[in-house]
Design a protein that fits this description.
The complex is a heterodimer of chains A (481) and B (341). Chain A is an alpha/beta fold and 481 residues long. Helix content of chain A is 32%, strand content 26%. In chain A, the strands form four sheets. A six-stranded mixed sheet of chain A has the order 6-7-8-3-9-10, with helices on both faces. Classes of the chains: A alpha/beta (481), B alpha+beta (341).
Chain lengths: 481, 341
């Protein structure tokens, strides 16, 4: 008979008048993978925190392993035996895997450590659980998959019966994700419960036994195993899946060419990007994004091959002033890297516009004109003097509006949909469509194609630094997302 | 006297603030004396340590338990809890504890459950009908139909008589799941004469474990008329007004502590606002709902069943509703595993 491991009963969490969890009902059993797909991210962090720690809640009760661990009347701030695997590693990077597994474990009290004994124990433990990690490697040298497996081992060793996996698609490549999901299924068979959080329901459905759809801190629907289909999910995502017409590529001439480029992890990468076209590079091994960005921004030079922009060589000298050449780049953590927190919304929006206008000072008339143009789109946020007060989707939108204003020839987006909930992703896709309709060529480099295909004209699969397959838009239905 | 000042808790708070101020003043005085005279800092240090130790003890032994009890009172006033009030770990005084226990005795739960069950019967029948008169009449119709060779009418009448007999005549609170499902199948049979193949019903079991036994699951008990009002709601509010066919699915799952029954329909669903209001009602155990809303129909059936479950088994059990307009509604019932009536 199924054993209930976690139960959150009518849990509400209200802080400073804001409701993060709203009458949330949620339960998990041992030996199951429960999927959690967020339509938005509100309450996401608080939910994870409440599963891990018994902090104060406003209403409701939390049961863990058959006993009440937290309730509205009494919270002892104790910890539940739960491990979270997320983008940020919880291992000590400078130490080896075996040290992380054994030496840094709670309750390890030995003053003198016999390394041989540790290695023997670690190997035996990993073999028993069919986990393949080089235990002598330092954590800093591990691949993302190895790091996740090491963390999973640590969870097992610490006696955690529940593991929360938070959006692994954001930091694992497609191949790594499949392997990791296989391992999670093995752990499930051994009785571990896994809460698998993902923004893409396709990813979650592939691995989960049940899936809860989550919005604004409450559960909208629980999909049982036989209900986890795109058709069943479709009515819940129609709100944000409404899309405008896809802008057609303007010409086949090609704005940018990669001619058999070798640099870093790139091993003969070749592709062409046309004006107004959106091309998605599916980075299967999760290793080319930094190199492509480095080449375009002048941090890296071609060892072999060449890049041309508008049929002219894109030299390192040009790459050094890439913005003037009409190349713009939106990195994965764009909000942190492209926004200035001590500047107003308008100052952020118009930053670098002076270079484009080739004026050292921008006139107030232009400034006002931009404000009037963007106010209907942005709303009151345009008058914000402290952009940290903005919601995350508004901050993301600011980055894309900024790019729209710069009107580059080529816009490179690295994992644009990795962060943010479903609504934010919808907004990003809408903004990218706007940029494409201006005639800008958009290159998306991602490890997960699920939603980007909605706006892409072509999909190129990149493995080991080179294109291995290419799909036109009418062939996308052949791809298993 | 202001409204706030009449409460003893407020006076105690004022006393505590005054006491804290006096302590601080004494502390300041002792440190000042220590600086000015040659007695040294040890007495001041010991006194400070003593005061902080004392405050620590007060915080853990008085303030925290007081805050816990206060929260329980607040939640009781809002209607979210009932049993917690009677099981509070830290009563304010022995007399307040006795008063609360007296209140517990005064709440006649059996009466509440009976009122609630009657309401379910009322909702099921939509009228006050004399059962014996009804059975006799139905039996008469059935006999006439059989004599005339109208088998369909005879079967329908028999189904109706069985339904009424179960609904009105069985007086016990808890029935087996098997009986409840039989009543649902009977009710569905009657509804089929009206809806034909527009309505389909299926009953499914979660067979995740190797040791799953359908027979064992069917022996678990639940309050009588738990499922029928919800199925009726799903048909009338979800499927009846829907264009095209409607599907009702009852899915039963059992874990080590609970039985979960989900009744899903692919009908009209409900708006987000309405859903929120309904779930808010379902969170509370409201005695008022049982007594006052007898004249209403619709969502009251779900609220009523929820109240009955909470009264019988405690606040941790009950109903949650998930719904989306145009997609359908899932009503999830959580019950304890009960095998003896």
């Amino acid at each position: 008979m199924k054993k209930e491991l976690l139960r959150m009963d009518h849990v509400s969490l209200i802080k400073n008048g804001e409701t993060f969890l709203d009458n949330l009902n949620f339960q998990m059993f041992t030996g199951e993978i429960m999927g959690l797909v967020g339509r938005n991210n509100k309450g996401h962090d608080q939910l994870i925190d409440l599963i891990c720690h018994n902090h104060n809640i406003s209403f409701g009760t939390v049961w863990y392993n058959g006993r009440i661990v937290n309730s509205y009347s009494y919270s002892d701030n104790s910890d539940n035996k739960v491990y979270v695997i997320e983008q940020k590693s919880r291992l000590v990077e400078g130490l080896s895997v075996v040290d992380n597994l054994f030496v840094l474990r709670k309750g390890f009290k030995k003053y003198f450590i016999n390394e041989n004994v540790l290695y023997v124990q670690a190997r035996k433990f990993l073999q028993e659980n069919e986990i393949q990690v080089d235990i002598q490697k330092r954590v800093v040298n591990l691949t993302p998959l190895e790091r996740c497996l090491a963390e999973l081992s640590k969870a097992l060793l610490s006696g955690c019966r529940l593991v929360i996996v938070d959006n692994p698609g954001n930091f694992l490549s497609k191949y790594e994700l499949t392997e990791f999901q296989k391992m999670l299924k093995k752990m499930k068979d051994k009785g571990m419960a896994v809460l698998y959080i993902g923004n893409h329901h396709e990813d979650v459905f592939r691995v989960a036994d049940r899936t809860s759809l989550y919005t604004d801190g409450r559960i909208d629907k629980v999909f049982e195993r036989d209900e986890m289909t795109d058709e069943a999910m479709a009515p819940y995502i129609t709100d944000w899946n409404i899309k405008g017409p896809d802008p057609e590529p303007e010409s086949d001439e090609g704005v940018m060419h990669f001619h058999c480029v070798y640099a870093g992890n790139l091993q003969g990468l070749r592709f062409v990007l046309n004006k107004g076209e959106c091309v998605t590079l599916l980075d299967v091994d999760n290793r080319i994004a930094e190199d492509v960005a480095g080449l375009l921004c002048g941090r890296l030079t071609c060892e072999k091959g060449r890049i041309t922009l508008e049929h002219k060589p894109y030299t390192p000298a040009k790459a050094a002033r890439y913005l003037d050449e009409g190349i713009a780049l939106i990195p994965k953590d764009c909000v942190e890297r492209l926004l200035f927190w001590d500047r107003t919304y308008m100052e952020n929006l118009t930053f670098l516009l002076d270079r484009k206008l080739k004026k050292s000072l921008m006139s107030r008339k232009i400034f006002r004109s931009i404000r009037n143009e963007y106010e209907p789109l942005v709303g009151k946020a345009i008058h914000e003097t402290n952009i940290s007060n903005l919601q995350f989707p508004e901050q993301i939108a600011l980055v894309y509006y900024k790019m729209q204003l710069l009107h580059p020839r080529v816009l490179v987006c690295i994992q644009p949909l990795a962060k943010g909930d479903m609504f934010t992703r919808m907004k990003i896709l809408e903004l990218l469509r706007g940029i494409l309709s201006q005639g800008t060529a958009v290159l998306i480099i991602t490890t997960n194609v699920s939603d980007t295909l909605d706006i892409s004209d072509r999909l190129l699969i990149v493995e080991k630094g080179a294109c291995t397959a290419s799909y036109e838009k009418n062939e996308f239905n052949r791809i298993v997302r | 006297m202001s409204r706030k000042k009449k409460f003893i808790s407020e006076r105690l708070k004022a006393g505590a603030v005054l006491g804290a101020a006096l302590f601080l003043a004494a502390l300041g005085y002792i440190w000042a004396v220590s600086f000015k005279t040659s007695i040294g800092f040890l007495p001041a240090f010991v006194f400070t340590l003593g005061i902080f130790g004392y405050l620590c003890v007060i915080y853990h032994l008085v303030f925290k338990p007081y805050r816990e009890t206060k929260k329980i009172y607040e939640q009781f006033v809002m209607g979210y809890v009932l049993n917690d009030l009677f099981q509070a770990r830290y009563p304010l005084t022995p007399e307040s504890q006795q008063a609360v226990q007296k209140l517990n005795e005064m709440i006649d739960r059996n009466n509440l459950i009976s009122v609630s069950k009657k309401q379910a019967e009322y909702l099921a029948l939509q009228n006050q009908i004399n059962p014996h008169f009804l059975y006799n009449t139905l039996e008469g119709i059935r006999s006439e139909a059989l004599i005339a060779g109208l088998d369909n009418i005879a079967e329908m009448t028999e189904a109706l008589a069985t339904f009424f007999r179960y609904t009105i005549s069985q007086v016990e609170h808890l029935v087996t799941l098997e009986d409840e499902l039989a009543n649902i199948e009977n009710y569905y049979y009657i509804q089929q004469f009206r809806f034909g193949d527009k309505l389909t019903l299926s009953i499914e079991y979660e067979r995740d474990d190797d040791d799953f036994s359908e027979l064992e699951v069917l022996r678990y008990r639940l309050p009588k008329l738990t499922l029928q009002p919800i199925v009726e709601n799903s048909i009338y509010h979800g499927i009846e007004r829907k264009i095209g066919r409607g599907r009702l699915v009852i899915r039963i799952g059992v874990s080590n502590e609970r039985m979960r029954i989900r009744i899903s329909d692919d009908g009209l669903g409900m708006s987000e606002e309405k859903l929120k209001q309904l779930n808010e009602k379902l969170r509370r155990l409201s005695v008022d709902d049982v007594e006052e809303q007898t004249g209403q129909k619709g969502g009251i059936a779900v609220v009523n069943v929820n109240n009955r479950i909470k009264l019988l088994f405690g606040e941790e059990y009950g109903i949650n509703v998930y719904s989306r307009e145009g997609v359908g509604t899932d009503v999830l019932i959580n019950l304890p595993l009960v095998q003896d009536s």
